[in-house]
Amino acid sequence: MKMPTSHTIALLFNGNKIYDREIIAGIAAYLNSTRVSWDLYLEEDFRCRLPGIERWRGDGIIADFDDPAVCAALERTALPVVAVGGSYQDPADYPARVPYVATDNYKLIKLAYEHLIEAGLSRFACFSLPEAAVNRWAQQREQAYCALMRRDRLEPLVYRGVSTSAPSWDEAVEGQIAWLHSLPKPIGIIAVSDARARQLMQACMRAGIAVPEQVAVIGIDNDPMARMLSRIPLSSVIQGTHEMGRTAAHLLHQMLNGARLDGTRILVPPAGLNVLASSNHQPCHHPHVMQARHFIRQYACQGIKTGQVADYVGVSRSSLESHFRQELGRSVHDEILRFKLDAAKAMLGREGANIADIAVGCGFTTVQYLHAVFKRELGCTPREYQERQERAAAAPVPSPLIPTA
Question: Where is the HTH araC/xylS-type domain (predicted)?
Answer without folding.
Answer: 290-388
